[in-house]
Amino acid sequence: MGVTFADNEPEHRYEMFVDGVLAGVEVYHRSADTISLIHTEVFDSFAGQGLAPQLVTHVLGEARDRELWVLPLCPYVAHFIAKHTDDFLDLVPASRREEFHL
Q: 4-9 long-range contacts, Cβ below 8 Å, gap at least 24?
């Protein structure tokens, strides 16, 4: 199974492809120094394959590479960061962490 990702800026979403087929998206709003992650979705035909964590990990890695703060408005992303604080908590501004139960 080949998983690839693309930042579809006009649609404000990261796209995840499995063997060339769109399998899921991470909808965002990006400003100069912040990316707000709004909605994570893996399409039904790809459910149960562990793809959501791959998508979120990729998006958080992109945020780190672009030196963006992350606002995890999507409950799934907030939960993911809470489970992986050693790897990703530093991406969320300290002043906003309580807002996301982090």
A: 5/55, 5/58, 7/62
CA–CA gap between residue 75 and residue 40 (Å, rounded): 9
- At 79 the three-state DSSP class reads helix
* pLDDT in the model for residue 1: 74
* Beta pairing, strands 34-42 & 69-72: parallel
Residues (pLDDT < 70) of the chain are none
Q: pTM here?
A: 0.95
Nearest residue to 88 (alpha-carbon basis) of 75, 73, 72, 99: 72
H helix and E strand count, the chain: 3, 5
